[in-house]
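Let us practice reading a record.
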Amino acid sequence: MSNYEFNPQVKKSIKDLLSSPKEVVITTHHKPDGDALGSSLGLLHILKALGHRVTVVVPSEFPSFLNWMNGSKEVIDFIRNPKAAKEHLSKAEVVFCLDFNDPSRVEKLQSDLMNVKVPMILIDHHLDPKKGFCDYQFSFPSIGSTAELLVHIMMDFGWDEHLNRDSAECLYTGIMTDTGSFRFNSVTDQTHLVIARLMKEGVRNDRIHELIYDTNSFIRTKFLGYTLSEKMQQIEAYNVIIFTASQSDMDRFNHEPGDLEGIVNFGLSIKKMKVAVLFSERDGLVKISFRSKGKFSVKFLILILMGFSSCGPSTTEKEKVAPQPTNSEELKESLIQQNRQLIAEEIEMIDAYVERHGLKLDTTSTGLRYKILEKTEGREVRLMKDVTLSYSASLLNGDLCYSSDTSGQLSFTIGQSNQPSGLQEGILKMKEGQKAIFIVPSYLGYGITGDELCIPGSSSILYKVKLEKVSQQ
């Protein structure tokens, strides 16, 4: 049983729309991956079982390691067969758009897709869907894959009774590939409940894993080895791994769609690395793919991209190549400059927050904002002292991240703790029994990557604390 319940009006409208047999087209993004194709074929089987005539139209070819899925042979590739794709779109009575939320993601198919005058239904898990793109939207960025979202919809609509092994294998593939084989933090208890439901239909997880990951060609394996040994850079100060793949690299190794699938996961397997980015050149354009661990700051991604692009070679309109920074030190210096700009912007945001709330706070030389709320004659805090405090830690937008009310009082040793340096700096200004307010900027808090649990990267933290106890030693 899914814990997700969807808008009842939207649910009724779609059920009414599909109450009689319809001509349905399902489409997805350019260069479909496992989630895009798996969710599309999974939905195809369900809708066929409901009595509809269904066609999957993709904007371009998909990797060969996905062609074992039932229904993949009937998928229409717009690049290879534009006439058939256009014909099915022109006859469609309903169009489903899966695993993308902006029409630009279908590239050359966009014009034909946007010219259809029938109801369009979006099912997707990416951020910021384009407004007005589809008539009905199921947009849930908190869910790790479109395939998982689709199963929740099926269960809420009562369509899961039509699941069988074919549809379940397709949907399992989508979830497995988009969650890094279930190791990304987007995986929840609901994900595993969905997987359990699919496995009831006879899905063999070992078989699917082998079909996806153990079918590499010899030349693809050499390409991966070359990319890892020659085209990978580590920016240790920022916990970042960067890969590049130029068109000439891919031509050298007879690149096929999917050959770079999963390369960024190698970067995240390196100790302490938080972000892995792949810059790959395709058809004269540079595609950017990234993965991250924990809560991720979009500002940090922008910082990486700005830093990376600023130290690549200059190009002309006719000479677009994958960025190739001259060396790690040059890229590191560029990232430092961009980071300084982001810090300046964060300070402006803190200033605006302080003014908006009428706070009168002092500022230390490091940038910590603080106010001691009452005077006491309690024991002073010194380095190496053990302290215990009641506290709350919130983001400046009001979201509560941590509190002693829910997780108990916080105890640590000043100067020997992994607690944020800004918090420890503020505690050093207190005496036992005092209350205080601190605003800790991200560079004195959890930095550009966050704490991987609740606090996103590049986030200022508002602490409200009471120093309960200071050790005598």
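A brief commentary: The mean pLDDT is 87.
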